[in-house]
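Records of this kind hold a single protein each, on a pair of labelled lines. With that in mind, the following record should read easily:
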Amino acid sequence: MALVIVMTTITLLTLLLVDIQGMTTTSFLVARNHRDRIQAEYMAKSGLNLTRLLVANEPAIRQLISPIYQAMVGRPPHQLPVWRYADAVLRPFCDYEGTQSSSIGSDFGWDTSQGLGKTPGTCSVVGVAENSKVNVNSPLIRGGLEARVSVATQTFGVMGGYQTPSPYDPLFDGLDADEQRTDRLDVISALIDWWDQDTEKTTFDPGSNQVTVGGAEDSIYTSFRDPYAIKNAPFDTLEEIRLIRGVTDEFWDTFVEPDSTNPDSRKLTIYGSGSVNLNDTPPEVVLATVCNYLQDQPLCSNPTESSKFIQLMSTARSLFPFPFFTRSSDLLNFIEGKGGGRDLYPTLVSFLGEEHPLLFTPVEIPDDMRSKLDLAFVAAARIIAIHSTGRVGNAVVRIRTVMNFHDRWSPPPPNAGSMPPLGIFHYYRID
């Protein structure tokens, strides 16, 4: 009996020990994951704040680079897209060990610098100019019918409306989740009617690139399983586009957010002024904006010429990793094949040869369209999306922000005054 009692006691103590060990291990893992998560969040905040500091110092960086840039292009830069290179510039702060093991660390002496290498994890940054996307929100610099026409033409172009046939046609052929058939023109009307302040329906005619307003706004939202009303005010977040009729999951994954971890994959924005950044915008969006005004030109009506334009601009950006256009007239010269020896088209002709198959045929821009195209493009960015990701152990925290750095914009009351050097937040989210 003594042996049985001893064996039973040992068994109970063993079970108790195993239970205590399990609880202790679980508590330890939870505490460690919580610690890693907090550290990863602050690594992401560090990457975000360092990027804001980098953008705030862009004028000083531009002043240093200006002589080299002017020697290559023949004129000073209007703005340097420093946010594009934030991840590489900030790597010694975000990934010290990776920098130390690379040739960059030896070349710049990061391995002997003081105060680096004390972080528990790494961070990475992606910066994107919001005006490199097509704006579907109420434009900041336009109003009335002009604002509607600007949004309608650019959105119709990025959706492939000016291409026949278009690779995006299948997206608008079937029924959406609410059993409604919504084509391109319906989506465009719904986008505009969402943010305009009247209750009249907007109708876009792509043949004349004109917008008419009349009749009651579409009340289709009241027939949904979960009915709601049209907002009649500007979009506040990108996710709000989900409420627009015809915006299916396929539409979202194609135009709005193809890759949630990479803001550069987006084609649409709600933070644009209405003018497109010609240095950061994808060539497809540049072409769509141009073709809003030059539909009958071979560059827009001939798929071969359109493909050449896109490939040539992509090739030029890979060959010259700096902003080649300092003003919108530089892009117009590129389209017309004009300019001096340092302009882009003549440079590419001398580099590739006059008969190279990659060169598109220049077009002639009518005088009445030149002024409109000049207003459709800008060479600088003031509203920038910054995604910063912190990693510590198995914890990954991503901070998604949209920052305004425009020096002519001042915060509203009670914080009215001058723009802070590090910008202000339009959007802030932690995932």
